[in-house]
Amino acid sequence: MYGLTIVTPAAAPVTAAELRDRLRINGTAEDGDLTEFLASAVERFEDDTGRPVLTTGYRQDLAQWPAGGLIVLGRGGVTAVTAVKRYLADGSTETLAADQWRADLLTPPARVQLAAVPARVTTAAGIAVSPVGCVEFTAGWANAAAVPKQVLTALKLLAGHWYENREAHTEKKLAELPDGWARVVSRYKLGLSGSWGQ
């Protein structure tokens, strides 16, 4: 099992002004709502695909060291692994040396291979420390210009759909997604589930 924590959040790759132009809205009075819909569309994309849109920093905590020392990272579009750490009995961390692990970012899903599985740490009372360790990494496209056009279009479509149906009172209408959303999501979906042996 693992847990993902966002350490460095990212901004939305589409501005309220861009969405306003697309929806042909005059004036800035509704920019607050448009910004909220865009942020929600980004969240939905990331939930549906397991991949952040813009560069985001993560910490993936591990409940146990995986057998064989192969750690599969729980996000797509990983661009760098910055550290692999082991938790100590006092709650602090110890960074593993660079020669104790290597990252494979070219073959999805991204993963880290440990040279050797670290020894289990216990407290003075003999209780095993959990989580045992963590991997810190970044994932996502570098900037809005690097995000594929179809992803930007899908985000605008979904945010625009929510804007146009903001007064909807039926669950069916609110649950509907614009045409093309599923196709874009399926192209970028990480496609992993379960604990992957972690």
TrEMBL record:
Recorded superkingdom: Bacteria
InterPro entries: Phage_CHP, Phage_HK97_gp6-like
Name recorded for this polypeptide: Head-tail connector protein
